[in-house]
Amino acid sequence: MQVGGFQKKPVAVLIAGPTASGKTALSLRLAKELNASVVNADSMQIYRDLRILSARPSLEEESQAPHLLFGCIESERPYSVMTWLEDFAEIFNSAKNEGRPLVVVGGTGLYFKAALEGISLLPDIPEDVRRSWREFSLHNPTETLHEALRERDSVMADRLEPADTQRIVRALEVIDGTGQSLAHWQTEKSTPIISAGEALQVVLEPDRKVLHDRIQQRFDMMMDQGAVEEASSLWARGMDPNLQVMKAIGVKLLAEAELGKTSLEWAIERSKTETRRYAKRQCTFFRGQLGGWPRLDPLNSHEIDVFVERIRAAFL
To answer: Which of 95, 167, 176, 222 is the most exposed place for a label (fewest CB within 10 A)?
Structure first.
């Protein structure tokens, strides 16, 4: 595996990987080697009330190095990729100016892609517009949705398959809420935060069976740590189920099991299945969108040692 050569000293190491792939362990090792801060790039670990089910680093792990953007957002607050970019830009620029290394770690591939390439500058869509089209999609077939899009935005209708309900609804929300096609907004991009040569990247890519075994074991550990109590506490607050935090794997399933709506055994197995599917989606994104990043087997100790030494040398 090659890290790549750089003409100037990098600012950050970017560690992407599917859930349960060993990102936390590697990030802590690098943080100690580089005397660096660890920055979160995971859309669920941002939430204060979701330590267990998001697999956020433990208090003991967080004590080993400064941790930024972990558990800092209240559950009721939406947190978009644009919000993360704004928060990350402040941290990154400060670190660059002060010469402090960063280890940016997480499983939300879109965060990394946006930091390196910029992201479409979509404006906020009024909530009543969102609600209207979501309701419409629940009571009409996909063909009707696609025809509604064609009447309003033929460019996006030509791009999207009639069965792609989620993206059709998004395109309808945008044209209705902004008066401009989603195609227009996709050409308007934010400025990349990380320039060429300012970061070293790696994707952790464990064997599929090994990853599935780790997912099983980690969810069992979550149960021992109080996952049911965490899920039930969130559910009892009566928050909007469409909030990002409420969509975390295990929240709804475990809370409903605690309420007696289903068995706990079924909820656990279903949560493990959803986690495996999520990991598969993450891996698909990394292959398609971060295809040029080097890959690393997190269980190959020699590969890890070589990688850490190359990173350490790059920051000297």
So the answer is: 167
